[in-house]
Design a protein that fits this description.
This protein is about 30% helix and about 15% strand. With about 325 residues, it is of the alpha/beta class. It has 2 domains: about 140 residues, Rossmann fold (3-Layer(aba) Sandwich); about 150 residues, 3-Layer(aba) Sandwich (Rossmann fold), CATH 3.40.50.
């Protein structure tokens, strides 16, 4: 729940920036608290490239426009994600005589003791600390209630897509791994065959990172399918595909897409060829498979399987309340 509040009215501030994944994580946790919050847009200057051990609790890395947003009265709680927001969160706490509590998603980069709760993905590794909550996946804004609303309110037609519907979420190359044309060909052939075997169809959505293999994706999809290209200008059906799919296949290099898929409680299959997957991704996939939330995609899809949904944002919100991080006078 988000109210249209000014910073003088809100007990909870959410620091968001231009990284969509970090933004989704912070907002997902705030929404799970089920109380009003204020979103603070953070923009950065050139000094943000300095390590956080140098930036400390400061506004050295942000623009004048951002500095103008940060003023009293200070909030009881700040929620943020990623290394770049951490100095801003620490500065707010310092200005409020350490009375503001800080919840940081992912490692803040330095000075762990200044944060009241650090929500660190288990697959990232790291030492156990009293203020660290290890989380199995990334938090986000999808849950059963929201997905049901999306399914009932989606106005764009799904055309002649008969059930069962299998959502195919395609990412692409990362800084460390290449999503090759051979991988794209294998994925599209296998998913098309799985949909045909189930007498169903594919709902396919791509991302900015799919670019180099987009032609391969288009060439090797077959049967009945709907394809959304990330740059085609139409409304992105990603959320609707999650909400209306009978099963989901997702490329395993995307932590966020894997995390969002396993929140649905639908059969989730992770496409994880060795050349695409880092050791960190492999640890995430193993945890999801071992926990009964997903399976590795090897060509078959079991539509009768009912995995346990995993909604990490709700778990973090519960931890915030259990640790009384909002009980600040």
């Amino acid at each position: 729940m988000r109210a249209n509040l000014t910073t003088s009215e809100a007990d909870v501030w959410v620091l968001v920036d231009d990284r969509a994944g970090n933004r989704a994580q912070s907002l997902g946790v705030a929404e799970s608290l089920n109380m009003p919050f204020q979103t603070i847009e953070i923009s950065y200057g050139p000094l943000i490239k300095l390590p956080n051990i140098i930036l400390g609790a400061s506004l050295m890395g942000v623009t004048r426009a951002t500095k103008d947003l940060l003023k009293t009265p200070w909030p009881k709680l700040v929620i943020a994600a990623g290394r770049r927001t951490a100095p801003v969160a620490r500065w707010i706490k310092l200005k409020n005589n350490n009375a503001t509590r800080l919840v940081q998603i992912m490692d803040p980069g330095s000075d762990h003791g200044n944060f009241d709760l650090i929500c660190r993905p288990a697959h990232d590794g790291g030492q156990s600390e009293d203020n660290v909550l290890e989380i199995p996946t990334a938090p986000h804004g999808f849950n059963a209630k929201k997905l049901s609303h999306i399914a009932n309110s989606w106005v764009n037609p799904l055309g002649d897509l008969s059930t069962p519907r299998i959502a195919l979420l395609i990412g692409g190359s990362t800084r460390r791994r290449n999503f090759s044309r051979d991988m794209a060909q294998q994925l599209c052939r296998q998913t098309s065959a799985a949909a045909a075997k189930a007498n169903g169809c594919l709902m396919v959505t791509t991302s900015r990172r799919t670019g180099d293999v987009m032609g391969t994706v288009e060439a090797y999809l077959s049967g009945t399918y709907q394809l959304h290209r990330w740059d085609d200008g139409a409304e992105n059906p990603y959320a609707a595909y999650l909400a209306t799919a009978d099963a989901i296949i997702v490329t395993g290099e995307s932590v966020s897409m894997c995390s969002e898929a396993v929140s649905t409680g639908k059969p989730v299959y992770i496409f994880a060829p060795s050349g695409l997957i880092t050791a960190k991704h492999a640890r995430l996939h193993k945890a999801l498979v071992d926990g009964g939330h997903a399976r590795l995609f090897e060509g078959d899809v079991d539509l009768t399987w009912r995995p346990t949904p995993l909604v990490v944002a709700d778990d973090i919100a519960a931890a915030i309340k259990a640790r009384h991080l909002l009980d600040v006078k």
